[in-house]
Amino acid sequence: MRVMGDGGVALEVFVDGPDDGTPVLFMHGWPDDHTLWRHQVSALSAAGYRTIAPDLRGFGASDRPDDVASYALKHTVVDMLAVLDACDVSKVHVVAHDWGAAAAWGLASFVPDKVGSLTVLSVGHPLAFRDAGFRQRMLSWYMLLFNFDVAEQWFREHGAEMLASHPDADDRLSALADAAALTASLGWYRANAHPRSLVGEPPSLPAVTAPVMGVWSSHDMALTEEQMTGSERYVGGSWRYERVEGASHWMQLERPDDISALLLDFLGAGAGTHGGGDATG
Questions:
Q1: Confidence of residue 56 (pLDDT cuts 50, 70, 90)
Q2: How many Å separate Cα 47 from the centre of its chain?
Q3: Is the Cβ–Cβ distance between 212 and 240 less than 8 Å?
Q4: b/e for 58-80, b at 16 or more Cβ within 10 A?
Q5: Where in the sequence is the domain holding 144, given as residue range(s)?
Q6: Residue 280 lies in a domain
Q7: Contact yes or no for 3/13 (Cβ under 8 A)
Q8: In this predicted model, what pLDDT tens digit does every residue of 79-88 receive, in sequence order?
Q9: Number of domains in the chain
Q10: What pLDDT, in 10s, does the model give residues 38-55?
Q11: What's the CATH code of the domain at 215?
């Protein structure tokens, strides 16, 4: 289905599972699209959940705004509210990865009545990421590179090396071979990871009151464990942490059954119940 998001940006949204199932919203990150979640969508849909997996703005079949400011996380928060409205969902369980996780933290913080639970893979709370120290800054070198106008050329020359651990590397590189698609995807870094974000006062975010599960993989090349475990400080509700051994950043593709099992356990053990068309929280 096609949904009009913030500022008239059209989003492609893929819905599966029974219409009366408890809804689960999947939010991908860079350089992916909704297919990142195909294994989890299949598992949760089969278990009776209604899965909602959009291509976030700039990715997949969704629109690619030309201006960098359009990729600020606040716009994706509004996009997701439009998606929920179009799907007639008043409250949802959110499962998110990478930039999708960064936006999902904002969704859960600022619109708590819409989020029954939050599961974040790889990327912890924005303030925990900021708190994580020098090693995290070193792992984030590419985020600064992506702010410069040489980034597109650099990725064309070195993207295959950067995405070597991605199970769908060939598909991702093919998608980003389109110059407009590559520049749109880098807009997320240029709007949200500018060097000025490293200095000054951190942003103020309300504590997340929904139940939260953070999942980190031990072979993540871009993110430290500390930025995930430190997220507990910013969660006012229940907090659960899971470490996936031996998997890279894209654990939902490398270890699909393990991630699906974690989701089914978390959602079924108090984060929500089946039926009724809403996430009960």
A1: very high
A2: 22
A3: yes
A4: bbbebbbbeebebbbbebbbbbb
A5: 2-268
A6: no
A7: yes
A8: 999 999 999 9
A9: 1
A10: 999 999 999 999 999 999
A11: 3.40.50.1820
